[in-house]
Amino acid sequence: MTSGRMSRYGAPRRELDAIxxxxxEPRYRAAQIHEGLWGLRRPLDDxxxxxxxxxxxxxxxxxxxxxxVLERRGDxxxxxxxxxxxxxGDQVETVLMRTADRATVCVSSQAxxxxxxxxxxxxxxxxxxxxxxxxxxxxxxxxxHASPQRVGNVVFMGMGEPLANLDExxxxxxxxxxxxxxxxxxxxxxxxxxxxxxxxLTRFPLPVTLAISLHAPDDALxxxxxxxxxxYPIADVLDAARGYVEAKGRRVTFEYACISGVNDHPHQxxxxxxxxxxxxxxxxxxxxxxxxxxGYRGDAPGxxxxxxxxxxxxxxxxxxxxxxxxxxxxDAACGQLRTRTAVPVDxxxxxx
Length: 352
Ligand code: SAH
What we know:
With 352 residues, this protein is α/β, with parallel strands linked by helices. It has helices at residues 13-22, 27-39, 52-61, 121-125, 133-145, 166-178, 195-203, 219-225, 234-248, 266-276, 303-315, 343-350; strands spanning 67-74, 79-85, 91-98, 103-106, 110-112, 127-130, 151-156, 187-191, 209-213, 253-258, 284-289, 319-322.
C-alpha cells in the first residue's frame, strides 16, 4: 500500500498484527479480526467475538477513509449509489448493483478525471486527485456491508481513469483478490485506452478482465469524443489490447456509448466489426445507450436503432450486448457520476 496514513482497509496485515499485539491481546485475536473484516466482510463493530475495548481501540487506530455524504437508492432498491468524502474534501461515488443472488460494485479510481471525454460527466468536471488503494478497496467493502448478496464482481467504471492511477489500482486489485477473495476475472478494469497503462497491466500478475472504451470505429470520430485518441489512436489501442489477450488468455470487452446520429449508423457498425474482426479470443462489444449529461448535447438512439447496430455486429461474428441502464433514476448510470458539489444540495438530499 502506498497510502501514507494507516486506515482500516489500507493497513497491511502485519500492521493489524502489531496494533492488536500492542493492545496486549493474544495472537489469535489479529487472525480473528482479519477474518472478520476481510473473509466474512463484516463491519468492525459487528465482530462481537472481539472484546468491545479492542474494537474501540482499533476503530481509532485504523479509521475508515470514506465519510458518507449521501446515499440514494433506485431501481426498486437494487441499485444504491453513495457519495463519499475523502481526505482533502474531494467527493467520489460508488454504485452497488444487486440481483437476486449476487452483487456488482462499480468503484471510482480517481476524484474527477483528466481524460475529458466529451460525453462523460466526470470528464466534463476535470481532475481532482488520485484515490489511494485503501480508498478504492473500502468502496467495495462498504458496499458489501449494505448488500445481502455477496459482492462477486468489481468494475472500475466509476469516476476516473484507472490506468492513470496504476500505482494505487494495482495494490487495490491485489487486495480485492487476496484478502476479499474475489476472482481475478471478476475484477474488470475499464480504460479509455492509455497504451502504456495497458502494457503495464499486461505485466501485472493477476489476469483481471480488461475493458476498452472505444465509442467510434474511426480515428476522426474518436478524436472528437475521446481526446486521448490523438495520442493513442485506435490501431495502437487495439495492438495493446491484443497483447493483453495473448498474455492473459482473457477476452477483452469493448464499450461503445451509443449516441444518436454520431456513432450509431449501420455503416459504423460494419466499420467497427471490420476493425474487430479476427481479434484474438473474439471481441465482445457492450453497447451502452448514452446517458444524458449537462455538458454534452446528444441523445441515446432509440432501442430499435441500437438493436440494428447490435445485429450488424453479430452478423459479422462480433458478439454484442446492449447494456441495461441501471441507475439512471438516481444519476448513477455511466458517465453521470458527477459530484453535485453545492453543499445546500447535499443537505437537502440527506434530510428526511
Ligand atoms: N475511464 C474509464 C472508466 C470510467 S467510465 C473508461 O473510460 O473506460 C466507464 C464507462 O462509461 C466508459 O466506457 C465510459 O466511456 C462510459 N460512459 C461515460 N460517460 C457516459 C455516458 N454519458 N453515457 C454512457 N456511457 C458513458
